[in-house]
Write a sequence for this structure.
């Protein structure tokens, strides 16, 4: 396994004043996650919530550009303005075991898992914490361990299942079958649901709660084809009065939006930044050309006429030469002089739950109910209801379409959707051309990881 496991996890140095909603009192710099950390509610909270800062502290980190934009390049959503090797391998599906971001995403996610395991072990051994605080923190740690394993298994396939801080054991762990990883993910999410409260710990949505765990469980059940359970969990979220599908698309990605299930609070707001997504994708001036550009062949034309998502969530620049360039505009703030952080990075939101339930219902032949869920999303987008005569195959394609135009450039949804529905080759093969092979639906296992753990095998197509 990775040398990351031999390192003692440090609580993020990024718990600055801007991060006050995460914790009241940040830990000292380089404070170790040790038994001493779990002797007070404040330091234990800082140990757990430091993970959120680590994930999103700087640009091109796991929880911002890497998961939102590089995965979109692998699919048919996005491209970069000029040739750049580290991005081109995603766009061209020509990843190598030593590609920079292949290795960093493996390394970083396992480092974050180590962090969660250290917290789980420390919290379980702690005796001086307020019981409600201890339960909430344990729930958050179990949720994040499940969340990270979910992304690893969807990116790399069979992966080591890491549930302790034992470096010697972790360093020789082979890849675990995907089904067994999913079984542990489900177990962790069920535990998280029992531990976490329905309300957010600080009143803001920057730490997961029971609703976030329920929503992720709905997604996992959908991915594992347990459609009745997916419908059940998604319904629990959609019936919770804390959440709603917002009519105004320009309010969806605001801080503490009622559509948000889980957001990450910006922790590095120097120069007037809010989110790294907004800073990276929004042009410097209204006439500047964007760096990350939406695909004008395979995404922009896929929006139906009158779709408010195209009008509100895509930006548009016409160059001096007359070229039409589009860019992601879900996050609208590049920088601000107001001193106010008004946008947070969205991790999970209510619209996905409608789409999960729609697909789960259609798969169970509850066609009318599934179509109604799709129509909820379409109505918000300003579109007419679907034809009531559509059969199951057509409705499943309608799910694919709505997920494409609703969730573009968000957390790899499009890439994972095509993979899990076995549609990757049909959709992406003609786009990617000679570079495409069915094995491209998974990343190669990191070269660095295989050097340090001889028991890790490589994915097909990368040997």
């Amino acid at each position: 396994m990775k040398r990351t496991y031999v390192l003692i996890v440090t609580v993020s140095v990024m718990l600055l004043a801007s991060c006050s909603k995460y914790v009241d009192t940040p830990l000292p710099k380089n404070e170790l996650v040790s038994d001493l950390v779990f002797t007070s509610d404040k330091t234990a909270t800082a140990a757990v919530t430091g993970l959120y800062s680590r994930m999103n502290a700087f640009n091109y980190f796991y929880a911002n550009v890497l998961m939102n934009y590089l995965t979109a390049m692998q699919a048919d959503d996005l491209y970069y303005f000029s040739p750049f090797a580290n991005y081109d391998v995603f766009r061209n599906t020509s990843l190598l075991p030593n590609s920079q971001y292949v290795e960093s995403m493996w390394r970083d996610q396992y480092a974050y898992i180590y962090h969660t395991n250290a917290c789980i072990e420390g919290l379980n051994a702690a005796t001086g914490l307020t019981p409600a605080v201890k339960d909430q923190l344990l729930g958050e740690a179990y949720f994040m361990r499940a969340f990270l394993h979910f992304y690893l298994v969807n990116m790399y396939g069979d992966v080591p299942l890491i549930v302790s801080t034992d470096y010697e054991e972790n360093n020789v762990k082979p890849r675990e079958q995907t089904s067994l990883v999913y079984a542990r993910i489900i177990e962790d999410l069920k535990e998280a649901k029992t531990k976490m409260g329905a309300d957010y710990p600080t009143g803001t949505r920057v730490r997961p709660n029971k609703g976030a765990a329920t929503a992720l469980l709905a997604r996992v059940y959908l991915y594992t084809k347990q459609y009745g359970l997916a419908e059940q969990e998604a319904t629990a979220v959609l019936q919770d009065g804390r959440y709603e599908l917002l009519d105004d698309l320009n309010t969806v990605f605001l801080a503490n939006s009622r559509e948000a299930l889980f957001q990450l609070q910006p922790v590095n707001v120097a120069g007037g930044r809010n989110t790294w997504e907004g800073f990276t994708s929004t042009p410097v001036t209204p006439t500047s050309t964007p760096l990350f550009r939406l695909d004008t062949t395979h995404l922009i034309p896929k929006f139906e006429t009158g779709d408010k998502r195209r009008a509100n969530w895509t930006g548009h620049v016409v160059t001096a030469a007359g070229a039409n360039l589009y860019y992601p505009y879900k996050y609208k703030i590049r920088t601000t002089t107001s001193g106010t952080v008004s946008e947070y990075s969205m991790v999970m939101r209510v619209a996905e739950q409608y789409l999960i339930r729609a697909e789960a219902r259609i798969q169970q032949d509850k066609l009318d109910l599934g179509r109604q869920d799709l129509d909820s999303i379409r109505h918000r987008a300003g579109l007419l209801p679907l034809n009531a005569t559509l059969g199951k195959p057509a409705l499943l394609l309608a799910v694919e379409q709505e997920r494409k135009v609703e969730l573009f450039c968000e957390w790899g949804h499009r890439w994972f959707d095509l993979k899990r529905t076995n549609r990757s080759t049909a959709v992406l093969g003609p786009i990617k051309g000679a570079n495409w092979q069915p094995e491209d639906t998974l990343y190669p296992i990191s070269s660095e990881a295989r050097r340090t753990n001889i028991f890790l095998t490589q994915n097909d197509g990368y040997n």
User: Anything to note?
Assistant: The two ends are 19 Å apart (CA to CA). Confidence is low (pLDDT under 50) at residues 1-21, 23-32. The first helix runs from residue 41 to 56.
